[in-house]
């Protein structure tokens, strides 16, 4: 990989504003080929992608996704799904209700989605993951007519960037890369990172926030409590 390509990957930003320019079929096929070539546990290939082009469906999904406007307006919107439905047809006795099966599917989905987004950025596109579709996961599944043993895991908006946002700070290596053994949280280094992120949020949005505050805001509450029931309805995580 060229240094230019490495620099592009190291400069990842979520893009939420796009030019009014379609992504042509040749590029779309390159994105799909990157998806197809993603690593897959045991060669199960348990991920499917649904490209949503129907405006009415886009509008409905946008409403399910906390009314994030770019879900509707982005040139492309794809939904990445754990898909063991075809496996259930091939092997009717497949034991798909084990927790490990969902882990396999979720890991493979993340790998495939990142392959697509990385390729998109290398080709001059930008994008953003849409995890908020899990706010109404069951309704999204119904809209996409997903059968049992499938789950909508994450959406992705893709298009040509119409913004140049700053790079969001990431955890320093000392807080996420260890040798041989896990290391306890270094409070001094955390404080330094909180200051870095506080400066970022203040400059970007003029808000009082930092990484620790964001963690608390995200996790100190029930997190999508309806998800488990839907997972089990779809045949997952029963044991």
Entry summary:
The chain has 239 residues and is α+β, with helices and mostly antiparallel strands.
Name the shape in a single word.
globular
Radius of gyration: 19 Å
Residue fraction in strands: 5-15%
- Give the termini distance in whole angstroms: 43 Å
Structural category is alpha+beta
Biggest sheet architecture: 4 strands, antiparallel
Mean pLDDT rating:
97
Secondary structure: helix percent: 40-55%
Strand order in space, largest sheet: 1-2-4-3
The arrangement of helices and strands along the chain is HHEHHEHHEHEHHH
List unreliable stretches of 5+ residues.
none
Number of strands: 4
How many helix segments?
Answer: 10
Keywords: Flavoprotein, FMN, NADP, Oxidoreductase
Protein name: Oxygen-insensitive NADPH nitroreductase
Pfam family, one: Nitroreductase
Family: Belongs to the flavin oxidoreductase frp family.
Description:
This protein has 239 residues and is an alpha+beta fold. It is built from ten helices and four strands. It has helices at 3-10, 25-36, 55-64, 70-73, 85-90, 99-122, 137-143, 187-205, 211-219, 227-233; strands at 47-51, 76-83, 126-130, 150-159. It has a four-stranded antiparallel β-sheet, sandwiched between helices. Helix 2 (25-36) packs antiparallel against helix 6 (99-122) and helix 3 packs antiparallel against helix 7 (137-143). The longest helix has 24 residues, at 99-122. Keywords: Flavoprotein, FMN, NADP, Oxidoreductase.
């Amino acid at each position: 990989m060229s240094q230019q390509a490495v620099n592009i990957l190291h400069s990842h930003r979520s893009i939420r504003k796009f030019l009014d320019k379609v992504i042509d079929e040749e590029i779309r096929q390159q994105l799909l080929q990157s998806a197809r070539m993603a690593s897959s546990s045991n060669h199960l290939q348990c991920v499917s992608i649904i490209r949503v082009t129907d405006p009415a469906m886009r509008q409905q999904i946008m409403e399910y996704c906390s009314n994030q406007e770019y879900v509707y307006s982005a040139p492309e919107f794809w939904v990445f799904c754990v898909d063991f439905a075809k496996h259930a047809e091939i092997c009717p006795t497949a034991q798909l209700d084990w927790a490990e099966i969902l882990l396999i599917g979720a890991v493979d989905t993340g790998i495939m989605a990142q392959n697509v987004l990385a390729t998109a950025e290398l080709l001059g596109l930008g994008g953003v993951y849409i995890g908020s579709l899990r706010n109404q996961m069951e309704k999204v599944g119904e809209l996409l007519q997903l059968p049992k043993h499938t789950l909508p895991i994450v959406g992705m908006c893709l298009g040509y960037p119409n913004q140049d946002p700053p790079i969001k700070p990431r955890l320093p290596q000392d807080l996420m890369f260890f040798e041989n053994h896990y290391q306890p949280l270094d409070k001094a280094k955390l404080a330094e990172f909180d200051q870095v992120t506080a400066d970022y949020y203040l400059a970007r949005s003029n808000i009082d926030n930092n990484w620790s505050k964001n963690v608390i805001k995200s996790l100190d509450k029930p997190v999508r409590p309806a998800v488990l029931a839907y997972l089990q309805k779809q045949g997952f995580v029963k044991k």
